[in-house]
Specification:
Number of helices: 12
Shape: globular
Helix content: 40-55%
CATH topology: Rossmann fold
CATH superfamily: P-loop containing nucleotide triphosphate hydrolases
Radius of gyration: 17 Å
Structural class: alpha/beta
Number of strands: 7
Strand order of the largest sheet: 3-4-2-5-1-6-7
Strand content: 5-15%
Largest sheet: 7 strands, mixed
Length: 250
């Protein structure tokens, strides 16, 4: 199959981007797909979530052309991982001509793309140079979204950003859909926000949602996905179902 690069994006923090990246990737890998996860967040949450504590080269070295991507990978749960440290933040402090640097990640993936069926990029919670590189490299955008009022404003911003990147750098970029996360069906506002998004935004919304579950919060402290940590939990079942739905979309 043609490799698919998916950017997991939300410019609002705490929206489950990392958890979604790890567990969608884990679900794909369990189905036999070849998966690469890229931690593009300077906080390194994806790296930590998979128990990666020591490594010589990371994504910052790749973006600086100090290391080949293939030489910087670490294997976890049948997936390859390109890890990150806080050194990644230093790249954002360098003022570079975007027209010359928006394609650095895309170019780095060229050498390895055919080795994978899916490449999932965990993006930082901001519209930054790193996020622009991710969107320029991606085919599809997956938007994890909490169902609260503030997230509606954030969704408007994300959709505008995707359209801007599509116009300037990557005319193949499309939104795969909005995935509702941390869902508590007991709250009336949850369903109201979900229906508002479906009715008011020109974007696909996943039929499957990710319910709130303590196991998903516990799994990173054990350096593993919730699918591996608690395979019968609501979160694990929800992410597996969401991964199946994502497959039908891409």
């Amino acid at each position: 199959m043609t490799p698919k690069v998916l950017a997991i994006v939300n410019q609002k923090g705490g929206t489950g981007k990392t958890t979604t990246t790890v567990n969608i990737g884990s679900a794909f890998a369990a189905k036999g797909y070849r998966v690469l996860l890229i931690d593009l967040d300077p906080q390194g949450n994806l790296t930590y979530s998979l128990g990666i504590n020591e490594f010589e080269k990371g994504v910052d070295d790749v973006l600086k052309h100090d290391s080949l991507l293939v030489d910087s990978l670490i294997e976890r749960e049948l997936m390859d991982v390109l890890p990150a440290t806080t050194n990644l933040a230093k790249l954002e402090l360098v003022q570079l001509d975007m027209s010359n640097t928006a394609y650095i990640l895309s170019e780095a993936l060229t050498d390895v793309a055919e080795e994978y069926d899916f490449i999932l990029i965990d993006c930082p919670p901001s519209l930054s140079w790193l996020t622009i590189n991710a969107l320029t490299a991606a085919h599809k955008v997956l938007i994890p979204m909490q169902l609260d009022v503030f997230s509606i404003q954030g969704l408007t911003q994300i959709m505008a950003t995707v359209q801007e990147i599509k116009n300037q750098y990557n005319d193949e970029l499309e939104i795969a859909g909005v995935l509702a996360v941390m869902v508590d069906n007991r709250k009336k506002l949850t369903n109201e926000v979900l229906e508002h998004v479906k009715d008011s935004f020109d974007v696909s919304v996943f039929e499957n949602v990710i319910r709130t579950n303590v196991k998903a919060a516990e799994a990173p402290s054990f350096g593993t996905s919730v699918i591996n940590y608690a395979p019968t939990s609501n979160s694990a079942r929800d992410y597996i179902a969401a991964a199946d739905e994502l497959l039908s979309k891409v």
